[in-house]
Design goal:
The complex is a heterodimer of chains A (319) and B (284). Chain A is mainly α and 319 residues long. Chain A has 14 helices and two strands. Chain B is mainly alpha-helical. Classes of the chains: A mainly alpha (319), B mainly alpha (284). Chains A and B meet through helix 2, helix 4, helix 5, helix 6 and helix 7 of A and helix 1, helix 4, helix 6, helix 13 and helix 14 of B.
Chain lengths: 319, 284
């Protein structure tokens, strides 16, 4: 080893040069594929461009257009409905699963593996089988309901309150609930693992103290588990909301065109923001308009995350 | 007296365990039943699919469906494409992220912390904002419908850099100080000390990245034009477009697509779970 040059290598300038070399591959990729595209996308949203014809500056026209498009509002409503139902459902069920899996039972790993499996599979493949399951005529779900003699009573009950029968993906009312069921099913494993990690981080000390005070099972859950889980709950909530606003694959595979149904489900009832962006960018080739919508999506997600961050101070307990 | 009480307690514990097992099995069955139906439907004859109520176990099982599906579309090619892309992206992600993470964790340079915070900020930008300009960039560079176009835009992860940086910072500096006295190359420290010690973090991050890439749908959908370049996910979607109501073939195709990842998962599920936890808790 050349000891002399070693000593001269400790200057700050040299360290900066080394840092640059280490950072270079990542920074180049970051600049080209993240930073530049972000600005480019923002700029693009003020233009109208279909790739074939030259760029045309339209200022805020794209935004005016999207705010006056009734389909956009439907899409917003659909996405909001999806988020509002799937997130709480997912969180509750995955918490229950985590509680169940947190016991010291033999072979519990097998169950954890089973519950997590839907998460690692491709949504495309899984959506196909769920399309069959939801088939109103020969799919498994309706057939089970029928065999349990529940299908007809349910349908008449629905009819009496003015709702259409359970024809799932063929029904404008029930298509989105079907999508919700698939999404919750698929993502249970993820939130379950988060909650499990959170549960295992709660020191037994708290439970023992509660026992001494004579707390019941429910009281322990309400006054020890839930508060101690609040950081995890917060995290799961944020990630679930961000993720569910970006729903795409299930909607695309289960209800898009090619089945005689317009992309976005019966009467666009399962058209979501990302599908809307995708269709306008890559089917209609309206790059500028689609970019504008994408930025609206960003603003929505950002706002929600910001709001949650503000509120967390109120209900999240740390350590 | 005591013996009776003890017996009762033992029975109670046994009963509780039994109930728990029953509940767990019931839930596991419900969660996995779609996979069961996938296989079951794939082995039915064309007519049997439309039977009502649906047969649970097809007799006789039509294994030929798999051959038909395999021949209908070049799934072997799709498998190769997906493997090339997933492995390349995972490798590149680990490489670039670990190098950058080393710089953020161990090297001092002006603006380091501010740059890192900016980096973190960009994690907020959803992929949908980036997908349109990325597509246009790819198009301009002539990378549409190519491996390069599929791989490069996905090869750089701020998230991975963040995680690895947190992990590197937990490695005690004493180990490097000894090396610094002997021979000062940062690269060697990175290669010989930091990397080997980070094997768990790299492995779990790698598995997570691999799985995400393997199942990726939207980006390949945007980038790919020609049939030969399809990945398993896009190929399956294309398959759906061709064989709309041939449920048996669709399910066979879906099973073919799922088998590799399920096998990998069952063999290494510990790493999958760790990867998800690590990515989620952000090195907490």
């Amino acid at each position: 080893m050349d000891r002399k040059s070693c000593r001269s290598r400790t200057s700050a300038a040299w360290e900066t040069r080394v840092a640059l070399i280490f950072l270079l591959p990542h920074i180049i990729g970051f600049l080209v594929f993240t930073l530049f595209p972000s600005f480019f996308s923002l700029l693009l949203s003020t233009f109208s461009w279909d790739i074939m014809t030259p760029l045309m500056f339209v200022g805020l026209q794209n935004f005016v257009r999207l705010f006056s498009d009734p389909l956009f509002y439907k899409v917003l409503r659909n996405t909001a409905f999806f988020v509002l139902i799937s997130v709480p459902l997912g969180m509750i069920f995955s918490l229950i699963l985590a509680l169940l899996v947190n016991v010291k039972l033999k072979y519990i790993v097998f169950f954890r593996t089973a519950f997590f499996m839907p998460k690692i599979t491709s949504m495309v493949a899984v959506a196909l089988v769920w399309t069959w399951i939801f088939n109103p005529d020969f799919g498994w779900l309706n057939s089970i309901l029928d065999q349990l003699r529940l299908l007809d009573p349910i349908n008449s009950l629905l009819g009496s309150i003015g709702l259409p029968p359970l024809r799932w993906l063929a029904s404008p009312i029930w298509a989105m609930p079907a999508i919700i069921i698939v999404s919750v099913w698929k993502n249970l494993g993820y939130s379950m693992i988060m909650y499990l990690a959170g549960l295992q981080g709660i020191s037994d000390m708290y439970y023992e103290a509660a026992e001494i005070d004579g707390a019941s099972w429910w009281q322990k859950f309400r006054y020890v588990t839930l508060p101690m889980l609040s950081p995890t709950t917060f995290f799961v909530l944020v990630m679930s909301i961000i993720g569910s606003f970006q729903v795409f694959e299930q909607v695309f595979i289960m209800t898009r065109g090619g089945q005689g149904i317009s992309p976005g489900g019966p009467l666009d009832s399962t058209n979501t923001i990302v599908l809307y962006i995708y269709t306008h960018a890559f089917t209609y080739f309206q790059m500028g308009y689609a970019s504008a919508v994408a930025w609206i999506l960003f603003i929505i997600i950002f706002t929600f995350t910001l709001l949650q961050w503000r509120f967390q101070k109120k209900w999240v307990h740390y350590g | 007296m005591d013996k009776v009480v003890w017996l009762k307690k033992g029975q109670l514990v046994f009963l509780k365990k039994l109930v728990l097992y029953i509940i767990l099995i019931a839930i596991a069955v419900t969660m996995l039943v779609p996979f069961f139906w996938m296989v079951s439907t794939s082995l039915k004859s064309r007519i049997a699919v439309f039977e009502y109520p649906p047969q649970w176990i097809p007799r006789p099982p039509k294994w030929e469906n798999y051959r038909t599906a395999w021949k209908a579309l070049p799934f072997g090619r799709y498998f190769a494409n997906t493997t090339v892309v997933s492995v390349s992206v995972t490798f590149l992600q680990l490489l670039t992220s670990s190098l950058a993470a080393y710089a953020f964790a161990r090297l001092n340079f002006p603006g380091r912390n501010r740059l890192f915070l900016c980096y973190l900020g960009t994690m907020m930008i959803p992929g949908q904002v980036l997908m349109i300009p990325r597509f246009l960039i790819i198009k301009y560079l002539g990378w549409v419908d190519s491996y390069t176009g599929l791989i490069l835009p996905q090869a750089f992860t701020v998230f991975g850099t963040f995680l690895l940086r947190q992990f590197f910072m937990t490695i005690p500096r004493e180990l490097e100080d000894a090396a610094k006295i002997d021979g000062c190359s940062h690269f060697r420290i990175y290669l010989r000390i930091i990397l080997p010690l980070s094997k768990p973090a790299l492995a779990t991050l790698g598995i997570f990245a691999f799985m995400t890439q393997w199942n990726d749908f939207l980006w390949p959908l945007i980038v790919i034009d020609s049939r030969e370049m399809y990945t398993l996910t896009t190929g399956l979607s294309f398959f759906q477009g061709l064989y709309l109501t041939r449920w048996t073939l669709l399910m066979a195709g879906a099973v073919i697509v799922l088998i590799p990842i399920i096998v990998v998962y069952v063999l290494g599920q510990k790493y999958f779970v760790k990867g998800i936890t690590l990515s989620g808790l952000g090195g907490r």
